[in-house]
Amino acid sequence: MSDQANRSLRRSLVIAAMFIAIAGLGMIGPPGQHMGAAAQLPIEGKLASFDGATGWLNSQPLAATGLRGKVVLVDFWTFTCVNWLRTLPYLRAWNARYKDRGLVVIGVHTPEFSVEHEIENIRRAAQQMRVDYPIAVDNDYAVWRAFNNAYWPAVYIADAQGRIRYHHFGEGEYEQTEKVIQQLLREAGATGVGSELSAVDARGTEVAADWSSLMSGETYVGYEKAENFASPGGADRDKRHPYTVPQKWMLNRWALAGEWTVGKEIAVAEKPRARIVYRFHARDVNLVMGSGKRGKPVRFRVLIDGHAPDAAHGPDVDAQGNGTLAEPRLYQLVRQPKPIDDRLFEIEFLDAGAEAFCFTFG
User: Fold this and answer.
1) Helices (H), the chain
2) Does residue 231 contact residue 255 with C-beta atoms inside 8 Å?
3) Could you tell me the pTM of the whole model?
4) Which residues have CB under 8 Å from 320's CB, separation 6+?
5) Average pLDDT for residues 129-158, to the nearest whole number?
6) Which of 138, 153, 203, 315 could form a disulfide with 110 if both were Cys (CB 3.0 to 4.6 A apart)?
7) Average pLDDT over residues 155-174
8) Which domains does the chain have, with CATH numbers?
9) Angle, CA 208 vertex, CA 204 and CA 209 arms, to 5°
């Protein structure tokens, strides 16, 4: 199994663990990490090096040794990851509240898709998402390996002596994480830290998933990791090919219609009116997309069960389902009100050149 496939598996395991945690049947991460209070924190090792970063945004290069005396929160992210996006309101709130008390938040951007290697895409995403704390650009995975990390998102917190005292993988555990920040700041001599929790303002893709109704999972469109592809005859790899949809639909099956080139990582719409159809069960439908080498905006339209989404439209489309693909990112196309049921999602690209990477749901 490739490194990329392993990373996908690890992320899937995180999501699966979240389902278990929500059901009250288990925990995410090592048992010793899930404490009712932050009173006793183990020493897990030293703050790893950032020397392997290929660049920095919002800051001059930072070194672990130069951060002594500060409490350091290291957050591994990549800008198309919906699991990370739903943690971002908390990261912004903690940075704003505690940066003058001795907290340094460092976002380590380790890419999954090829478009996430491009520095201008990272810069634009950070600006749009209001990520104003230091960002280590980790295109070579050197910082990822230095921390022995395996997940997006992942948080590591080091005390003022440069010792890792806490980590958390995936979404959730926000109260515990903030209590750790507060405790380590007090240990470092900070005053006026307080014990109340920060207020967050989550909107759009940053809103937590509706776990109780979520029955559809992350689905890659490129052939390397694609599953449940339902177009008759399967994918014709790396070749322009006309696709059709099946006559009958099963939950979590998806298909292409029109002329596409299905590559290892992406599927590219070669002609106008190309479509993707997906039978899903979730509140939200998200799709990571780009506009390709043509560099031109691509118009698209979303339908649910053959009709305009109306009240079920996501923030990236209007009530009639109209939207425009202008830059590579995660687009939220559906946010349906209750009751949540099996629905047939369809996106039609009115122009050629759309690139589809990955579906996620919430």
Assistant:
1) 3-22, 82-85, 88-98, 119-128, 142-146, 174-187
2) yes
3) 0.88
4) 301, 308
5) 98
6) 138
7) 98
8) 3-206 (3.40.30.10), 211-361 (2.60.120.260)
9) 100
